[in-house]
Specification:
The complex is a heterodimer of chains A (about 325) and B (about 280).
Chain A: E1 9-11, H1 12-26, E2 30-34, H2 44-49, E3 54-56, H3 61-71, E4 77-83, H4 84-87, H5 92-100, E5 107-111, H6 129-134, E6 140-142, H7 147-158, E7 164-167, E8 172-174, E9 189-192, E10 197-201, H8 205-218, E11 223-227, E12 230-232, H9 236-246, E13 249-256, H10 261-272, E14 277-282, H11 292-298, H12 303-320
Parallel strand pairs in A: 2-3, 2-4, 4-5, 5-7, 6-7, 10-11, 10-13, 13-14
Antiparallel strand pairs in A: 1-8, 6-12, 9-11
Helix pairs in contact in A: 1-7, 3-5, 8-12
Chain B: H1 2-26, H2 31-36, H3 38-48, E1 64-67, H4 73-82, H5 124-137, E2 144-149, H6 156-167, E3 173-179, E4 182-183, E5 186-187, H7 188-192, H8 197-204, E6 207-212, H9 216-228, E7 236-241, H10 264-271
Parallel strand pairs in B: 1-2, 2-3, 3-7, 6-7
Antiparallel strand pairs in B: 4-5
Helix pairs in contact in B: 1-3, 1-4, 1-10, 3-4, 3-9, 5-6
The chains are: A alpha/beta (about 325), B alpha/beta (about 280).
Chain lengths: ~325, ~280
């Protein structure tokens, strides 16, 4: 089992900010738009470096999505920035018609996703965004797990032709992936190989899965941990290869259990290789105010919840055998 | 100038015939607004726009047009075909299965001349602003035009865009509102009154012009005037007075023909009022 350590904690949104700056340096067609949350999205460095390529649109997210779509005509690569709630639900129809159906090369970059937004509460804690975005034909959906992966993903989506939803968060979390990684859209990352259970995790739940994996090893359970950073297009082969070996699945995500990564995996299993699956996800509810750690515990999204799900799913597998 | 106006008027007559025959053939679509905006779109594509029918999505160095009220697709498709973007016989496929001429315009089927899907209302002004910003970044001094329905501006996104463009001096943009005073459920006055459009748009910081949209001479005059007012620090808005159903006597003075197709007898009656000038598709 590979041992993962970290020396610092950083927020994934800062990875986005660093990646955006680098993407802007690499390609002068990259432009950025923000709806009055420049500091929160960590877009200040890009704004400072490229003031003529930064567009402050004010508190008008629908207009921002439309402007971004129009800017692609003539070759720009627009990155929009606001909170995940205002990046998706508030502007679903604008994304659907002006971006996805119009085949526009817009990168919708969404911070403060999920419960770990914390004290602001449920108005801002969107848990349905992955579902909304993955249902749009042609949309790529990415939820990276730490600072380095978010930075690499941001650079990668600038080089990808087509609409992308990039989801990241507010809290500082361990930085454990390679700072020099090359991010491959749609290619799952094998975090740790194992034989007893497949844990497919995305976003902030990847580190929780690593923590769970260490405790499971002490309990004699050899968990395979795979990071599904790209929810669409899904790495079906990686899922099937893993499940063929382990025979059972735990999916882990900071999202409603309806419509998220878990459901995408369940569809693959149902079609190709039925196997017991447990969800670590929010159980069809809104969030509430609290610290990120309190919320992740209350809503069952921490390493303890993953361990319980693993025990349950292995028991189900054994009962079936 | 006189001959130009005559030619444009003849083209408009043919486009109106196309509109009626298209919606009749599929027994669906939106003839009323299409007929009202015919003179505007004919003037735009045959007189005003610097454009290349060998279509290129990026349109660098060309003037661009965005149809925001996508339901008047019949007039848009006819004008595109008559300007050479695709063959006029393809108009016969409008709203039929496997057609590039979808009920509302889309880029998805790769129809030359369409740069953005529209149909869900209120989105086109933002898109036009985006395209205008890119032109500025690219050092491209051509213009961006858009068309909106008056009912459409009840959508909130229009007003987000209306605030943005003057604040950011998007002065390479000429937006037009089709003021026909009608929407699906009745007159705009009854449904949700628009108040003084001139006062509203001027208050937002736009240069506002008015145009008689079914008088070809005035349409051409005002569109040239609008071009002359570009690049002076303000976005330009044209309030275009039109008659829904213009050109067909029984379709005018009512919102009834917003979204229904004529039957065989009505089509014959309507076509008898419009000269076949270039040749039916």
């Amino acid at each position: 089992m590979k041992k993962y350590t970290f020396t610092e904690k950083k927020d994934t949104r800062s990875g986005f900010g660093a990646g955006l700056l680098e993407a802007g340096k690499k390609n002068k067609e990259v432009v950025a738009l923000c709806a009055d949350l420049t500091g929160s999205l960590k877009m200040d460095a890009f704004q400072k470096e490229f003031p003529e390529r930064f567009f402050q649109v004010g508190i008008a997210e629908a207009n921002m999505i439309g402007i971004a779509a129009g800017m692609t005509i003539g070759g720009k690569i627009p990155f929009t920035g606001t909170f995940a709630n205002f990046s998706t639900g508030r502007v679903y129809d604008q994304i659907r018609q002006s971006v996805a159906y119009s085949d526009k090369n817009v990168k919708i970059c969404a911070s403060h996703a999920g419960l770990t937004l914390g004290e602001d509460g449920a108005t801002h804690q969107i848990l349905e965004d992955i579902g909304m975005m993955k249902m749009l034909p042609g949309m790529t959906v990415i939820n990276p797990c730490d600072y380095n992966q978010t930075k690499a993903a941001t650079i990668a989506i600038a080089e990808h032709e087509g609409p992308v939803y990039l989801r990241f968060g507010r809290p500082t979390v361990p930085v454990f992936t390679d700072p020099d990684q090359k991010f491959e859209i749609g290619k799952a990352w094998m975090v740790n190989e194992g034989k007893d259970v497949s844990i497919f995790a995305t976003g902030h739940l990847v580190w929780k899965a690593i923590e769970a994996g260490e405790k499971l090893a002490e309990m004699g359970i050899d968990a395979e941990i795979i990071n599904i950073h790209t929810i669409k297009p899904l790495d079906v082969q990686a899922i099937l290869t893993s499940v063929a070996k382990t025979g059972c699945v735990v999916s882990a995500e900071e999202h409603n259990r309806l419509g998220g990564l878990g459901d995408s995996i369940a569809q693959v299993l149902a079609q190709h290789s039925p196997a017991p699956q447990e969800y670590v996800a929010v159980n069809d509810s809104f969030g509430e105010s609290g610290t990120p750690d309190q919320l992740m515990e209350k809503y069952g999204l921490n390493s303890e919840a993953i361990i319980k799900a693993v025990q349950k799913v292995i028991a189900r597998k054994q009962a079936r055998d | 100038m006189a001959t130009d106006i005559q030619q444009l008027t003849q083209t408009a007559s043919q486009v109106r015939r196309d509109i009626l025959r298209m919606v009749h053939a599929c027994q669906s679509g939106h003839p009323g607004g299409s007929l009202g905006c015919t003179d505007f779109l004919v003037a735009l594509y045959f007189e005003i726009l610097n454009h290349d029918p060998k279509f290129n999505m990026d349109g660098k160095g060309e003037d661009l047009f965005f149809l925001s009220n996508g339901h008047i697709s019949p007039v848009f498709y006819s004008v595109l075909a008559r300007s050479g973007y695709f063959e006029v016989k393809e108009l016969a496929t409008f709203r039929k299965l496997n057609s590039r001429l979808q009920g509302h315009p889309t880029t998805h089927e790769h129809l030359p001349g369409v740069r953005m899907a529209s149909g869900s209302l209120g989105q086109g002004l933002s898109v036009a602003i985006g395209a205008a910003l890119t032109k500025k970044l690219n050092g491209d001094t051509s213009l961006v035009f858009s068309l909106h329905g008056d009912g459409e501006i009840q959508e909130g996104q229009i007003w987000e865009a209306a605030m943005y463009a003057p604040h950011n001096k998007v002065d390479n943009l000429i937006a037009t509102i089709d003021v026909n005073g009608q929407q699906i459920d009745g007159s705009t006055e009854q449904v949700l009154s628009l108040g003084s459009l001139r006062a509203k748009w001027e208050a937002f910081g736009w240069e506002v012009l008015e145009m008689s949209g079914n008088d070809m001479t005035d349409v051409v005059r005002v569109l040239h005037l609008a071009k002359a007012k570009a690049f002076k620090g303000k976005p330009i808005l044209i309030l275009m007075q039109t008659e829904m159903g213009n050109g067909v006597d029984f379709m005018m003075h009512s919102h009834k023909w917003h979204g229904i197709a004529p039957n065989d007898e009505q089509l014959a009656n309507a076509l008898a009022q419009l000269e076949e000038t270039i040749g039916d598709y």
